[in-house]
Amino acid sequence: MNAPESPSDTCLVTGASSGIGLAICNELLATTTLSVLAVSRGAQSCDALDQLSARFPGRLSALNCDLCSDSHRQALGENIAAGNLVRVINCAGLLHDHDRALWPEKRIEDVTAEGLHSLFSVNAYMPILLARDMLALMPKDRPCLFASLSARVGSIGDNGLGGWYAYRAAKAAQNQLLKTFAIEMGRRRPNLCVLMLHPGTTDTPLSAPFQKNVSKEKLFPAHRVARALLGLMDAATPGDSGRFLAWDGQDIPW
């Protein structure tokens, strides 16, 4: 993504109300001229996004959107001019939900149909459907990017601990779906780079219940992760499309 950007160019950031998504919005506004469309289920009631909008007048739009809904994703596209969507950065994900008694499984007896369906809906189905629905808005004649947060635990080759059945499997499915998308786009849209990115263990609500055994030097603040991931995106070329990368630029085995 080394092509010059204009103020009319847009970056869509999902999961933008907190954690890595919010930090990426902040970094994009501070370091680029891009307009940012910040999306989450509660984006329009997020104080942090309101504060960013005040700091960067006219460059940030917040939109409530359930990305698992076909109608919501289609409505999302109505807020972006065709050809101006130069980046899509999907930071939305689901690991646990106390209200629905969803929790990473430690034993096979903990696996449920509801848990599998919920985590696959957000972590596997949604990213590829978002790619499908946003593709027509992305430019054909210059470099553009579709990046989605994956996770090292989605690597089958790196799985030495077991557990976390639904989350591991959903992230592995996302990787396969987006790798397939990248291969097709290599033929149809050679200027599009598709990346799957592992952010490392980041101090966010998603990881909060699992931080007690993480050493201080391996628990990253969201702003550091945002800068590292955006650095990878900035350096990527269409030749990198389809890679599964850690925050430090290292390839992760499938």
| Average predicted confidence as pLDDT | 92
CATH class descriptor name? Alpha Beta
Main beta sheet strand tally, sense and closure: 7 strands, parallel
Strand order of the largest sheet: 3-2-1-4-5-6-7
Keywords:
254 residues; alpha/beta; Rossmann fold; 7-stranded parallel beta sheet; 6 helices; 15% strand
Walk me through the structure.
- A seven-stranded parallel sheet has the order 3-2-1-4-5-6-7, with helices on both faces.
- With 254 residues, it is of the alpha/beta class.
- It has helices at 19-31, 47-55, 70-77, 113-134, 165-188, 222-235, and strands spanning 10-14, 35-40, 60-64, 85-90, 144-149, 192-198, 243-246.
- It contains six helices and seven strands.
- It is globular and about 50 Å long.
What's the layout of helices and strands?
Elements: E1 10-14, H1 19-31, E2 35-40, H2 47-55, E3 60-64, H3 70-77, E4 85-90, H4 113-134, E5 144-149, H5 165-188, E6 192-198, H6 222-235, E7 243-246
Parallel strand pairs: 1-2, 1-4, 2-3, 4-5, 5-6, 6-7
